Amino acid sequence: MEIFFYHTPDQAPAMSKDAIKGEQVPDSPDCAIVIDVLRATTTIATALKAGAEAIHAFKDLDTLLRISSRWPYKNRLLAGERGGQKLDGFDLGNSPFDYMTDAVTGKRIFMSTTNGTRALDRMQSVSLLLTASLTNRAAVVRFLKKRQPHTVWIVAAGCNGKFSLEDTICAGAIACGLGAGLDINHYAGNDESIAAISLFNFWENRLEDLISYTKHGCYLASLGYEEDLNYCTQLDIVDIVPIQVEPAVLKPLLV
Ligand code: MLT
To answer: If residue 192 lies in a helix (H) or strand (E), which one and from where to where?
Structure first.
């Protein structure tokens, strides 16, 4: 297995669907994994664990409102976040704690967040698309070990187009779970992947400290979301893998 890590969706190579006529582009990877530890992919795993029927992810709000209005009212919930805050008129924000309730059971969640759902949109054409967070890292690793895709792209949502340390740590955690910490040469497809593995090895036992130092972590704490930071750094507590079953729709796979 060869793991390529990209710090932002824009760093991931163009795929055939994005190709400008006549341009040579790499084929899609065998598997892509989108990460937004703070907080979209942590929240997606939490919602599906809590029994949500599916997550339908949107990069823009107008499309979300249009498509969701076709779904039966009693079976849907709208989740919207911008700048870390829940949007007016939406049922849920982006805190994983919003989803730890029976109210999500059986519901389709129509979700749009600042960075996470945009990253998912960018990777939508990959035939095997998953989301990962620190909380479901072990489940993702078990899935990859079983499925054995050759080329894996781990794509961080990043923060407004910039590098995000917590997503990098999560990429390293996945790679190390696969055994890359002991055999970097065999697994690492690019230097970003080696850097992620090294960072995870360094911070593994102090994830909560680390996240409180990150820019996005400090910002969420300033909004009163300290508890979210603690939850989002808990390794391997959720045993499901969110997997794309149709474009932009993720359902849970129990692993
Ligand atoms: C995002 O998608 O940008 C985030 O998940 C932001 C947040 O922490 O709510």
So the answer is: helix 191-203
Distance 43 CA to ligand 1 centre (A): 9
Residue 180 lies in domain: 1-255
Q: 19 pLDDT exceeds 60?
A: no
Of 8, 39, 227, the one to substitute when testing ligand 1's pocket (max ligand atoms within 8 A of C-beta) is 39
Q: State the pLDDT confidence band at 25, using cuts at 50, 70 and 90.
A: low
CA of 244 to the centre of ligand 1 (A): 20
Q: What is the CATH number of the domain that holds 48?
A: 3.90.1560.10
pTM: 0.95
How is 110-134 classified by DSSP, letter by letter? EEE-SSHHHHHHHHTTSSSEEEE-S
Which residues pair with residue 243 across a beta bridge?
Answer: 130, 251
Q: What 3-state class would DSSP assign to 27?
A: coil
d(CA 42, CA 24): 35
Nearest CA to ligand 1 atom 6: 84
pLDDT for residue 180: 83
Residues having CB within 6 Å of any atom of ligand 1: 36, 38-40, 81, 84, 94, 113-116, 157, 220
Angstrom distance (rounded) from CA 226 to CA 164: 18
Domains of the chain: total: 1
Convert the pLDDT of each residue in 70-97 to its tens digit: 999 999 999 999 999 999 999 999 999 9
Ligand 1 atom nearest to 114, measured from its CA: 3
The whole-number average pLDDT for the span 135-160 is 97
24 pLDDT more than 80: no
